[in-house]
Specification:
single chain; 228 residues; 7-stranded antiparallel beta sheet; globular
């Protein structure tokens, strides 16, 4: 798969596994895609935990941090800033609590209409705490979730943005992978002990001895939950 120096994402759904530690090794393999900041968010039941900071994967995480991130689903991110400055608040995954639950989003890409969407959302009362365009998608998604279920809300949010994006979304007990309709950035689907894993590059699978299955297709959404 081709290499794009614009962040890296990793995600896994494994009720029986140590998802945080697996994600750590996945991000370690993707470190070349971003050395500015990194983070991991996990879900265990209805409790969302996360840790992120400026720095390299090996410096930001240690055994205690990973133990505290106990969860059955995880998404991770290594950052190379293309939108927003190199500040701690811009590290991903971005997390949010809202009336229906919690969200964590890891994003690789750039939205070309980010400026106009941010202005529109701010005029509608949205408050932004970061300088990156991932937060724009989160605001769009939460608004859509007022009217739709998760897949339909993601479709609506994606219909509003233009540009290149690969998204890993942790919503409650569900993991969703999305790739933009033009497939500007790579996103791969694999299996680790039969459980689904996603990564920006297959080198993450190689380190984990996961089996590469296929690329997420342009415009495709893959939803993973307890039913499969």
């Amino acid at each position: 798969m081709s290499i794009h120096e614009e962040c890296g994402v990793f995600g896994i759904y494994n009720p029986a596994g140590d998802c945080a530690r697996t994600t750590y090794y996945g991000l370690y393999a993707l470190q070349h895609r971003g050395q500015e900041a990194c983070g991991i968010a996990t879900m265990n039941g209805l409790e969302l935990s996360y840790h992120k900071d400026l720095g390299l994967v090996g410096d930001v995480f240690d055994d205690k941090t990973l133990d505290d991130l106990n969860g059955t689903i995880a998404v991770g991110h290594v950052r190379y800033s293309t939108t927003g400055g190199g500040r701690r608040e811009n590290a991903q995954p971005l997390t949010l609590k809202y009336v229906k639950g919690t969200l964590a989003v890891a994003h690789n890409g750039n939205l070309v209409n980010a400026g106009e969407l941010r202005e529109e959302l701010e005029n509608e009362g949205a408050i932004f705490s970061t300088g990156n365009d991932t937060e724009i998608f989160m605001h769009l998604l939460v608004r859509a979730l007022r009217r739709h279920n998760l897949p339909e809300a993601i479709r609506e949010a994606c219909s509003r943005v233009r540009g290149a994006y690969c998204l890993l979304i942790l919503a409650g007990s569900t993991l969703v992978a999305v790739r933009d309709p033009f497939g500007f950035h790579p996103l791969a689907l694999g299996r680790l002990d039969g459980k689904p894993v996603f990564a920006s590059e297959t080198c993450a699978f190689d380190l984990l001895e996961a089996e590469y299955e296929r690329s997420v297709e342009p415009g495709e959404m893959i939803i993973v939950d307890a039913s499969g």
